[in-house]
Amino acid sequence: xxxxxxxxxxxxxxxxxxxxxxxxxxxxxxxxxxxxxxxxxxxxxxxxxxxxxxxxxxxxxxxxxxxxxxxxxxxxxxxxxxxxxxxxxxxxxxxxxxxxxxxxxxxxxxxxxxxxxxxxxxxxxxxxxxxxxxxxxxxxxxxxxxxxxxxxxxxxxxxxxxxxxxxxxxxxxxxxxxxxxxxxxxxxxxxxxxxxxxxxxxxxxxxxxxxxxxxxxxxxxxxxxxxxxxxxxx
Length: 234
Description:
Layout: H1 15-36, H2 39-65, H3 73-76, H4 81-95, H5 98-117, H6 128-151, H7 161-184, H8 209-226
Helix pairs in contact: 1-2, 1-6, 2-4, 2-6, 4-5, 4-6, 5-6, 5-7, 5-8, 7-8
C-alpha cells in the first residue's frame, strides 16, 4: 500500500512558483512549434493536448486523494471554472466546434491564466497536487493559444459576438457554482469567499460586490482578447 503524502506549503512568487511557470512556458512553446511543423506533427500535438485536457480532472483527483489531510469538495469535484474549461478545451481540439473553441480561448486567457499568476494552491513541490495544478492550468492556456495560432480558429463576427456569448455562459456558470456552494458549503468560482492566497479578487471589493466586479472585469478582458482579430478574415 502506498503511504499518503504530507506536502510542504506552497508560497506564491517563490522559486517553486517561478520554476513551474518556466517549465510550462517551455512546454507551451513545444506544442506550438510541433503544431507548425507539418500535418502529421500537428495532428499528434492536437490529440496529445486534447488527451491532457481530458485527463487533468481524474489525475488531479487522484493527486488530492494521495494527501494525508482532510479533503474538501473544492478539490474533489470538477466544478471550478478551470475544470470546465479543460473539458471545453478537449472538445474544442477534437471537434473544432465554435462554441467550445470560444469558451477555451476566452476562459483560458482571461481566467485560467490568472490561476498561473496567483495560484490558489496550498501544497508545494513535490506533492502531486502541486504538479497537477500547473499541468491542468497550462493545458487550458496552451489550448487557448493553440486554437487561433495553429488551427486557425477565429471569433465570430462582429467582434463583440463571441465575447458576449462567452459572457452569457460565464454568468450561467457563476449561478451554477453559487448553487453548488450553497448545497455543499464549497467555494467553486470563489463565489463564497476569495482564495486564501493573494489574488486579483482581493482588490475587487467585499463579498458579494466583488462578484459583480469579476463579471465586469471578465467582460473587459473578453473584449480585449477579441481585438487581435479585428479586420482579419475568418
